[in-house]
Design goal:
- Among the domains are: 33-209, Jelly Rolls (Sandwich); 214-250, Laminin (Ribbon).
- The protein is of the alpha+beta class.
- It is built from five helices and 22 strands.
- The chain has helices at 3-16, 170-177, 262-273, 281-297, 309-317, and strands spanning 33-35, 41-45, 53-62, 67-73, 80-86, 89-95, 102-106, 116-123, 126-131, 134-135, 139-140, 151-153, 183-192, 195-197, 200-205, 207-209, 225-228, 233-236, 242-243, 249-250, 300-301, 304-305.
- Helix 4 runs antiparallel to helix 5 (309-317).
- It is 19% helix and 32% strand.
- The structure holds 2-acetamido-2-deoxy-beta-D-glucopyranose (4 copies).
- One 2-acetamido-2-deoxy-beta-D-glucopyranose binds at residues 25, 28, 30, 209.
- One 2-acetamido-2-deoxy-beta-D-glucopyranose binds at residues 123-124, 126, 138.
- Disulfide bonds join 184-211.
- This is Neurexin-1-like.
- Belongs to the EGF domain peptide family.
């Protein structure tokens, strides 16, 4: 991987991020975090040790098709696992001991804005990935992961590692930077012989406590339905006879066409045409902010307040990854 890439990231890192260190919070109800910035991430200590009988559990909620959920490794020695949403499916890659890298995919649309429970369970030789109790074929390897550096969520920021060489599986690093998780993650816990421990949140960037419903600050009038898209919300005024951001304006009879999202879709396609692979990362970041401000401007369109922020981010940052 070219060094210039890391310099770009480094520049961005320093330009855009301020790390907030947070108090340890064992079992506190506010352990939910909303990842709502283009470079959101968290780091938890200690990492989960994948030993004889135990499980890692994580709840997530997102609208993103492609995004990193969790990653762990041993600091470059050869063991790791990562879990990504890929096209709405859940994909885990794992390398333990002297076994080969194994991959498991669970089909589904786990980017449906609902909460989902991810579990990685180790039982003797078998490591099994499951989401909402749909389990993949176990990965069979007698070794165990026992010196994990930390548990990462959101994406892998090079800010928390001194060198790019210290990542066991740089493919995860690269894919995560291009597919930063946006949504909410909660209740990360390690279960070992029935005993539950919660890791300490060492650092978090671009997150906020809770998974607040944006509909609380958007009151739709005249019976319009507020649609919670996690990061933002919009009013669906369908059938109310009203339009506007809050369904406050009467639809005049002259305009016969019902509100549509066609022109917005067209705008989205304009961005999709650009080949993100050809844009240097810094340029890509500019694209993101350009799109963000553009979306602010077209936030109200044909009587609907649209949430395109996540879509735009996913479009520009969500580069080709395959299950
Ligand atoms: C989270 O909750 C705990 C107690 O339940 C409280 O002590 C702590 O200040 C809260 N933290 C935040 C960031 O709200
Ligand atoms: C998942 O979907 C792929 C194709 O979309 C299919 O080949 C595969 O058998 C499916 N796996 C399961 C476990 O249903
Ligand atoms: C491990 O998985 C295999 C294949 O699903 C199964 O046959 C075996 O019984 C499992 N072993 C344990 C200890 O769960
Ligand atoms: C719109 O037109 C219909 C008939 O086409 C009429 O019944 C209705 O009262 C009109 N509504 C308004 C708000 O003018």
């Amino acid at each position: 991987m070219p060094n210039t890439f890391f310099i770009f990231v480094l520049v961005l890192t320093f330009a855009k991020q301020t790390i907030s260190f947070v108090d340890d919070c064992f079992n506190c109800p506010n352990s939910t975090l909303k990842y709502n910035k283009p470079l959101s991430y968290s780091v938890y200590d200690p990492g989960w040790s994948l030993i004889n009988n135990g499980a890692l559990e994580v709840w997530f909620r997102t609208g993103m098709k492609n995004a990193m959920v969790v990653y762990e490794d041993d600091g470059g020695k050869g063991e790791f696992f990562d879990v990504f949403l890929v096209g709405g499916k859940i994909r885990m890659r794992m390398q333990v001991g002297y076994c080969n890298i194994e991959k498991r995919v669970i089909n589904g649309s786990f980017n449906d804005l609902k909460w989902h429970k991810l579990v990685i369970r180790k039982e003797k030789k078998n490591t099994t990935l499951s989401v909402d109790s749909i389990a993949a074929e176990p990965i069979q390897c007698s070794s165990q992961l026992d010196s994990m550096t930390a548990l990462y969520t959101g994406h892998l920021s090079i800010f928390v590692r001194e060198s790019s060489n210290s990542w066991t599986f740089p493919s995860s690093l690269w894919q995560s930077i291009n597919n930063v998780f946006q949504g909410c993650i909660k209740d990360i816990q390690y279960v070992e012989d029935g005993v539950i421990t919660r890791p300490h949140l060492r650092a978090t960037v671009g997150t906020e406590r809770g998974c607040s419903n944006p509909c609380q600050s958007l009151k739709c009038r005249h019976g319009g339905r507020c649609v919670d898209r996690i990061l933002t919300a919009w009013c669906n005024c369908e059938g109310t006879g009203y339009q506007g951001k809050r369904c406050a304006r009467v639809i005049k009879n002259r305009s016969t066409k019902p509100p549509t999202t066609k022109s917005l879709t067209t705008k989205k396609i304009t961005y999709k045409v650009k080949d993100p692979n050809k844009i240097p990362l810094l340029q890509k970041e500019r694209e993101v902010s350009a799109i963000n401000s553009r979306i602010k401007n077209i936030g109200v369109h044909h009587g609907r307040c649209m949430d395109l922020w996540a879509v735009a981010t996913a479009t520009v940052l969500g580069m080709a990854i395959n299950t």
